[in-house]
């Protein structure tokens, strides 16, 4: 095993943190850009909302593809390429002639770049850390929240000084620094970490058998290549099928979908709520998006630490925070002051930090061996919800010319999303009442996931 110094491991955390900050800063603060896009393109709120929803949703839906790219080409090359994508998408957005082009440049191009950055930074961090992996991942993922806090204020100032187009050009230039973050991401030379195609043939006998029976060299190569690609795909689909056989995992996917469907609207629309009610006039204020992002960072660390406590049921922790988030969204239309919206933004942000424990819960439900497939399905569910959520919720404003009904619908979706895994957990415990309840969902709990510090990546001495 290669000896990894603590200094180099810490540098990996720093550059991964900065990479997520630079990539996700503008998308996390899209709520600041949203009113400007409404004024510039004069489109409906539901149509304009596709921009903010797509940029986050695309990165999640393409999660399995992004992970395969990291496995095949390494974190360094993927980070460099993603930096060019994020920067190029932001710069193109400055010249967007209409909302459709903006959905492509800002939503799809930047979103895919963010997905690549997310996969690369988490993978390289897992490779370099073993004992302190949880803390390292917590620090790295906080970069998205810090980026949202910083970029919300910065984009406000840049819009005042240089306009919307100038703001996007400057932010796009900053994103080029992602290529510099890739420098320290040196792959470890470990026997079980080799950057090769993500789908590798695991049954060599299939290839060997064909080589023995076929006289044609060209035909042997073709048959072997076909077998190499066929076998891993079958195994991958079989593992997905096994995950979907677990009721609690299916419930978690439904919960993530409903959570994303209604929850993302709070971040994207809450700034426009304050402006539509004339609550920001003559008020020197911190953007609500900045407050939400800062509180989300605190929530990620706090809830992550709480999930590690032995007597805390991580599934119940996730479900209760989702339910509380839905209740907070239901209260938004009732507040008539900017100070009240600031308080709610902080509460919403803190509860949104529960996204960091979804991987923790997934490991308990499906086991470490099927974690990759399960996490991909989970993120895909969340991505679909994030893409559909803002346009659907925004359509209620177009219908009623008020955000009240929009936030009531969003809050109800999130509340139901929190209730689904709790109800499924209750049913599982009722059916399996003869089993001893140890603090986690026993009906779907895999025996190999008792040690939560294990990860399906390389170990290191960090």
Automatic annotation (TrEMBL):
It comes from the Eukaryota. The chain crosses the membrane at residues 49-70, 77-95, 101-122, 134-154, 166-185, 249-270, 282-303, 315-335, 341-362, 374-393, 405-428. It is a multi-pass membrane protein. PROSITE patterns: MFS (PS50850). One of its GO terms (molecular function) is monocarboxylic acid transmembrane transporter activity. It holds the Pfam family MFS_1. Keywords: Membrane, Transmembrane, Transmembrane helix. SUPFAM superfamilies: MFS general substrate transporter. PANTHER family: MONOCARBOXYLATE TRANSPORTER, MONOCARBOXYLATE TRANSPORTER 9. This is Monocarboxylate transporter 9. The lineage of its organism: Eukaryota, Metazoa, Chordata, Craniata, Vertebrata.
